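Long-time lurker, first post. I've been practising inverse folding by hand and with some scripts of my own, and I keep getting stuck on stretches where the structure tokens seem ambiguous. Below is the full token string for one chain I'm working on. Before anyone asks, I'm not after the true native sequence, just a reasonable design that respects the backbone. If someone could post their per-position residues I'd love to compare against what I wrote down in my notebook.
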């Protein structure tokens, strides 16, 4: 199996992901849809050989014991990739994600201007959420790159694995990889406060310990950025609280109310012209009223109401408002708009000109549309996230960068 040829075809197809398993031709994901490449199906032995080339000795030992491993590598003259090798039906399988070498800008990604303002927050916890492949890591990388090009900050990241590579410009950036530079997210965060950070980026919050350390770092006056696998703002708040035992729920709500700066939730929607996908983005910015709602468990489900009314004053927006703006700009189809909003029935009524119970929800977006410079998010593409720092003992076609 010529793995470089397969990777070249993946890049040429503008695919975000590549899947390899024995007995099946390589499969790529382009704009969320799976396609089969015109390549022969690899045998199990060929896949074992490819895996041996990708892994160094330490990684081979880990894979032999655990039967799955995350890592990343670069291919000289081609691209960088985040990889996961796992066993299925007794044979290895590989999932690769393409990581662009150049970090895209916030404008390239078509994200709301509020996100640029949030990148320069003086302190607090900023969460970017969404399902796998929704562009969370890409958004964080673009925020860090904006800071790096604009101001002087000491930025320390803890990632598993390292995704986008940042080169020092105005800021000073340390990137640490779990398993290579630190034992775990918790260990990396435990010592980061002694490393004089201005901004701390945590690749993902997965458990109670990491969440607690992130909140503590935000409470000491740092900016902490991270991701969660949640679908919207309300679910993000509820997921954080669920990390803790019931007797600590009041305490964590107080910590969130005091330290949460913003939640940014993303969904990628196919563009109407077929040229990739564009993000619909829900943004909640912490305001005094938002903090009051977070403190009251019965009012958390109603945060969407505050978000929908905070478009003009705070730059907030719900998914439904974001989707409606994209639809009216002609960037997505009505079918995809209805699939990706939270209240498809109400949006359908709105599009038919029928007044519904949510009529007040749409007013801020409609008012913003009448003033182009203050309203809807910009349009653009959203390269898929992924990637990381490569290991050692690589063949010639791989590079450490």
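-- Answer (accepted) --
I ran through it position by position. Result:
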């Amino acid at each position: 199996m010529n793995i470089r040829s397969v990777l070249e075809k993946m890049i040429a197809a503008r695919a975000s992901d590549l899947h390899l398993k024995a007995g099946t031709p390589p499969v790529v994901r382009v704009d969320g849809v799976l396609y089969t490449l015109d390549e022969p199906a690899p045998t199990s032995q060929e896949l074992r050989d490819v895996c041996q080339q990708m892994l160094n000795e330490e990684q081979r030992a880990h894979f032999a014991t655990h039967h799955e491993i995350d890592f990343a590598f670069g291919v000289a003259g081609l691209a960088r990739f985040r990889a996961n090798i796992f066993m299925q039906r007794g044979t290895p399988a590989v999932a690769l994600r393409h990581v662009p070498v150049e970090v895209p800008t916030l404008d390239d990604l078509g994200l709301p201007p509020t996100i640029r303002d949030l990148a320069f927050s003086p302190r607090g916890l900023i969460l970017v959420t969404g399902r796998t492949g929704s562009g969370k890591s890409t958004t964080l990388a673009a925020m860090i790159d904006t800071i790096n090009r604009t101001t002087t900050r000491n930025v320390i990241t803890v990632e598993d694995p390292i995704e986008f590579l940042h080169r020092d410009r105005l800021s000073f950036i340390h990137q640490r990889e779990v398993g290579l530079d630190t034992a775990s997210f918790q260990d990396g965060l435990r010592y980061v406060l002694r490393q004089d950070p201005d901004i701390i980026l945590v690749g993902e919050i997965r458990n109670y310990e990491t969440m607690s350390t992130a909140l503590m770092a935000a409470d000491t006056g740092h900016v902490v950025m991270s991701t969660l696998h949640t679908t919207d703002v309300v679910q993000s708040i509820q997921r954080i609280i669920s990390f803790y035992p019931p007797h600590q729920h009041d305490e964590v709500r107080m910590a969130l109310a005091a330290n949460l700066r913003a939640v940014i939730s993303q969904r990628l929607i196919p563009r109407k012209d077929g040229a990739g996908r564009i993000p619909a983005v829900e943004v909640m910015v912490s305001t005094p009223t938002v903090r009051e709602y977070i403190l009251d468990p019965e009012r958390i489900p109603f945060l969407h109401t505050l978000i929908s009314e905070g478009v003009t004053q705070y730059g907030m927006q719900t998914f439904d408002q974001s989707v409606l703006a994209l639809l009216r700009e002609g960037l997505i189809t009505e079918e995809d708009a209805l699939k990706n909003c939270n209240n498809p029935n109400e949006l359908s009524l709105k599009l038919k000109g029928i007044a519904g119970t949510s009529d007040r929800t749409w007013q801020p977006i409609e008012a913003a549309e009448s003033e182009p410079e203050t309203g809807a998010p910009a349009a653009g593409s959203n390269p898929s996230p992924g990637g990381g720092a490569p290991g050692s003992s690589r063949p010639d076609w791989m590079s450490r960068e």
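A couple of notes from the structure itself: The CA atoms of residues 241 and 247 lie 11 Å apart. The longest helix spans residues 136-150. Happy to go over any region you disagree with.
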